[in-house]
Amino acid sequence: MKNFPQFSVDRPVFASMIFLIVVVLGGFAFSRLQIDLLPNIELPTVSIQTRYEGASPEVMEKQITQIVEEIIGTVPGVEEMTSRSSESRSYVRVQFVWGTNIDTAALELQTTLEDEINELPDDIVRPRISKYDINSYPIVILGVSSRLSPVDLTRIIEEEIRYEFARVPGVSQVDTFGAYYPEVRVEVDPDRLQALGIPLNQVLNAIENSNLDLPSGQIEAGRFEVTLRAPAQFANLDQ
After folding, report:
1. Beta-sheet strands, E only, within 35-154
2. Could you give the CA distance from residue 191 to residue 90 in angstroms, rounded to a whole number?
């Protein structure tokens, strides 16, 4: 290497050709180099999300999350599980060993959950299994603040702003987080129920049966057929 400068001076044409070849090969390699903010990497990870409307985080943990973890713990290739329970929602993250075919693993998870679905409460929203896709991560995250109440702000975002963004060409999905939805909590007096001999399930059934929107039949008039409905869902607190 000490004689390289002298070699270049003695053979300038050869040295120039070597330099030119390096430049050409470098330019060709640079033109083929792919640059991606979010490269296409398939992570051996899936998530299981389950909803159980009205359930507290404690109920979600005991009746949903722990049972789901026990069920999927029997699936081969599971390396690690993490979970989170919140109001009405259970989230379980399952990581498989590297090299696992994530499509096959997700299908096996789905089959195992379906076989043991009776272990979970009857009125849950069936567990949803999602594969991790780096390209599906949100590109734009917007925060909205207002002097309106959280419930009113949520309604405006859900009914107006969200759909305006969804109509923008190229947008595939718009999700909302941190929303506030109105709800009514009914507190019963256990001593009063016991004195009247009314079980708590009877109160729950009465509320559920009074908050339904069911079809009430059909009316046929010649070539026309009209479906009748008897809307009985609660619209305000007075009901």
Report:
1. 42-51, 78-86, 89-96, 125-133
2. 33
Q: Which residue has the tokens 């299994």?
A: 129
Query: Closest Cα to residue 79, out of 96, 65, 93?
Result: 96
* 125 phi and psi angles, rounded to 5 deg: -80, 125
* 3-state secondary structure (DSSP) of residue 38: coil
Q: In the CATH hierarchy, which fold is given to the domain comprising 42-136?
A: Alpha-Beta Plaits (3.30.70)
Domain range summary for the chain, segments of one domain joined by +: 42-136, 138-183, 190-231
- CB atoms under 10 Å from CB of 150, counted, come to 13
Looking at the predicted structure, is the pLDDT value of residue 159 above 80?
yes
Q: Are the C-beta atoms of 106 and 66 separated by less than 8 Å?
A: no
Buried b (16+ CB within 10 A) or exposed e, 128-147: ebeebeeeeeeeeeeeeeee
pLDDT digits (tens, 9 = 90+) for 27-73: 887 777 766 555 566 678 898 999 887 777 888 888 899 999 998 88
What is the Cα–Cα distance from 60 to 54, expressed in whole angstroms? Answer: 10
Whole-number Å distance between alpha carbons of 156 and 167: 16
Q: How many Cβ atoms are within 10 Å of 84's Cβ, its own excluded? A: 13
Asked if 112 contacts 72 with a C-beta cutoff of 8 angstroms, the reply is: yes
Which residue from 140, 49, 147, 152 is spatially nearest to 92, judged by alpha carbons? Answer: 49
